[in-house]
Design brief:
The chain is built from two helices and six strands; from the N terminus they run βββαβαββ. By secondary structure, it is of the alpha+beta class. The protein has a single domain, classed as 3-Layer(aba) Sandwich (Aminopeptidase), CATH 3.40.630.30.
């Protein structure tokens, strides 16, 4: 896990699991990633800049592919990842129950 701090505040985190058991594409050297930032930083350059540092670290650690999941209702995150070059590779229907409804999980990948 990597912690992103701005001044003395913990702004967000990145985490990685090597070859996670629930990958859609079970290929070697795949990073399953997750990121979580305080809402006030959503849409900020801080997230984009720190993401690119994280991706560089993943390459240095020997990863050549990233896979992640984004819930259907999280349109902002889906657009963010697509702008970073991620491609949708699967849709897992009725994956999570949120706000009185079942939602899909969209799986994305990026070759790095």
């Amino acid at each position: 896990m990597y912690i992103v701090k701005l001044e003395s505040e913990r702004a967000g985190t990145f985490s990685v699991i090597r070859n996670f058991g629930c990958l859609v594409k079970k290929t070697e050297n795949t990073a399953w990633i997750s990121l979580a930032f305080l809402k006030k930083y959503h849409g900020s350059q801080l997230i984009k800049d720190s993401y690119f540092l994280f991706e560089k670290q993943l390459k240095n650690d020997g990863y050549d592919r990233i896979e992640l999941g984004v819930f259907e209702f999280n349109i902002r995150a889906r657009k963010f990842y697509e702008k970073l070059g991620y491609k949708q590779i699967a849709c897992l229907n009725d994956f999570t129950y949120y706000n009185g409804k079942w939602w899909a999980d969209y799986r994305y990948e990026k070759i790095i």
